[in-house]
Design a protein that fits this description.
homodimer; alpha/beta; FAD/NAD(P)-binding domain; 4-stranded parallel β-sheet; about 25% strand; transmembrane helix (chains A, B); FAD/NAD-bd_sf (chains A, B); NADH dehydrogenase (quinone) (non-electrogenic) activity (chains A, B)
């Protein structure tokens, strides 16, 4: 690693950080990619780990393995605790610091409880593999405890599953939990009927999947209802505890509450002391640089990116990847002496969401699909975007297996509290 | 579930408890199987989860799913805290109790630190899925931290892996860790050479795999040494802490110590207040009943079973399954009115162990194999004994993939402390 070479430090090995690093492969720079996890996670399928369809190792891969051929890239497993923009270095958890010439912040997001962080312990969100195995444990433990518990009210609460938030994650969780209860588990219990479970999806807005065109939201709602999901639109969760949730003024007893409502950006804006929106995202310039810091870029869920028409770029994988590629092109141009800012233009490729294993909605803007065809299309798209032949083969086989046998492959209760 | 029917309570869904329950399928009884885990674990392959070759969901299945067709069987996820032999009931963690007519204790074993329980936090053993992911995390974190740490001594300690115990588990861990360091990881690190890692296997006796015939032990030792493993025979670990181990009087700095030395039975003997050996195993009669309790059986690692020639039945899966089948036959005979004790005769089918992905040793008594043929035979035997077509297919594919591409499928650092 020659010290003369331009040194790019990338924080975060998600879709944005990884795409950026790969796009820089042929440039005369050395790159240090830092992540606090050793693995890149294929977030779009994380809900399938949480609902027992896929195993943890089928959607995550070691970042350093993905970058093993890029000799100019050094991968470090470490937690970044701050940035010193004056000295142009980042600070790590062990107090050491690393100098950069250019810094790319792709640190992602966590979920937000809108000022009610105390809700988190009762209503876990879904961002990491641990989140997924925690949700998986809670869902499966609810059925197991119901098989033990003879008090009717307690059993009702155990068999009531509340999902807060009607975006793609909430819709996908609700659909797969309903299928688990009504199609996968019946016949395996003797004292309860899992099909009696209630799955309730709560959305504050007037429709699910607000990013999609209205008729697809309508279709998704009825598809969920066909699976037995109760969809409550225009309802706010006003309280959340070990006993259940409060919807407006009514209490709904539940032992399993899942949070799919809001995201909050990682503390990158605080590190830099720059302006952020209320979700904590760095408000970047149209060239994705941090205002006042031409050598610092923010991409993916870390950044708030405005489109020419004033709309914001959505927090989805394709957007993060486009931003990563754009920043790579910008840095390469600069290395060639061209410093004129290059505005980022987001191209929206579409929105996809599944409802169980029979229906999906796809909105390509001018083109849209729904139902079974959409489900297959969704499947192929996700297999295609999975990293590595092995994962494509294994995930495809897992789905084929679940689809044909109706049994799921990863119904494990691990970690954390075992039975009461 | 009619209360008149003979009620058999089985504690433990391992090889013994599961085999017993299945063998009882056609009998006029009702059965309650209780386990504190929701899954049956295929222990013989657990070391492959610990060393990143297999994912957690490939070797574990929900017990109630495996027994879904046995309508007379109720599966409960619960922890048993005691037995009241006078009232003929077991007591659960929530204080409730369940009455039995016949009780089968198949509660398995944990590892034993020979009176040094304080060593456990520094030297985890391998019995549960959590143990496996803990060991996996420690092994992978050692390499990750070495890539960060610039102090040469610290780096040495991080790249030194100590395995205590030369039985099959110790040998298999040592071999697969050596391969990970020397074949899988090189090329993915920039600041360290993983191939420089030291793997040290410490065995108190005068040979590894003491259950095998001497020439196979000799072969296993040289096969390990070919993989770069240092095998120390006739050495005792006298201390174990965060800094490393003490072998006799010499200190060996190491940040990763794995325990494969001893097992201790679950507290079944204490529950009953009956005689146990120093490993805590219930000393059962030759019909596998607990002395003084004709309606209580103990099988698998819970029991110490003597063979006519005075040797003890080994704590391996085939033995537990044979005992499970024998107890089922005994109970069926009793239901038919025949109470004369039926002595259990153990048939030793053989011993198997792998050394990495190229060699194995198999001892069938009159027949023995070693080397590559043995490795393939070992693989087929384990695929065959896996439960369910899906797992056979997926594990076979995982192995084929690792074997041909030389990359492993589950290199995930999850749970517990992330980087320092």
């Amino acid at each position: 690693m020659s010290g003369e070479q331009h040194h790019v430090v990338v924080v975060g090995g998600g879709f944005g950080g990884l795409e950026f690093t790969r796009a820089m492969a042929d440039a005369p720079v050395r790159i240090t990619l830092i992540d606090q996890r050793n693995h890149h996670l294929f977030q779009p399928l994380l809900y399938q780990v949480a609902t027992t369809s896929l195993g943890t190792s089928e959607i995550a891969w070691p970042i350093r393995h993905l970058l093993r051929r890029e000799q100019e890239v050094t991968t470090l497993l470490a937690t970044v605790t701050g940035v010193d923009a004056k000295l142009k270095c980042i600070v790590l958890d062990d107090g050491t610091s690393i100098a950069y010439d250019t810094l790319v912040l792709a640190t992602g997001a966590r979920h937000s409880y809108f000022g009610h962080d105390e809700w988190e312990e009762f209503a876990p969100g879904l961002k990491t593999l641990e989140d997924a195995t925690t949700i998986r444990r809670r869902i499966l433990l609810a059925f197991e405890n119901a098989e033990r518990d003879l008090d009717e009210d307690e059993r009702q609460a155990l068999l009531t599953f509340v999902i807060v938030g009607g975006g793609p994650t909430g819709v996908e969780l609700a659909g797969t939990i309903a299928e688990l209860a009504k199609e996968i588990l019946p016949g395996e219990f003797r004292l309860i009927d899992p099909a009696q479970a209630r799955v309730v999806l709560i959305e504050g807005g007037d429709r699910v999947l607000p990013a999609f065109r209205p008729e697809l939201s309508e279709y998704a709602k009825s598809a969920l209802e066909r699976l037995g999901v109760t969809v409550k639109l225009g309802h706010q969760v006003t309280a959340c505890d070990a006993e259940g949730v409060k919807i407006g003024e009514t209490r709904l007893p539940s032992r399993t509450i899942l949070w799919a409502a809001g995201v909050a950006a990682s503390p990158a804006a605080e590190w830099l002391g720059v302006a952020a929106d209320k979700a904590g995202r760095v408000i970047v310039g149209d060239d994705l640089t941090v205002p006042g810091h031409p050598d610092i870029f923010a991409i993916g869920d870390t950044a708030l990116v405005k489109r020419p028409d004033g709309r914001t770029v959505p927090g989805i994988a394709p957007a993060a990847k486009q931003e990563g590629r754009h920043v790579a092109e910008t840095i390469k141009a600069r290395l060639g002496g061209e410093w004129s800012p290059r505005p980022f233009l987001y191209k929206h490729e579409g929105d996809l969401a599944t409802i169980g294993k029979r229906a999906a909605v796809i909105d390509f803007g001018d083109l849209s699909f729904r139902g079974r065809i959409a489900w297959w299309l969704w499947g192929f798209v996700h297999i295609f975007f999975l990293i590595g032949l092995r994962n494509r083969i294994f995930v495809a086989l897992s789905w084929l297996w679940t689809y044909t046998t109706g049994s799921r492959s990863a119904r494990l209760i691990t970690q954390g509290p075992q039975p009461r």
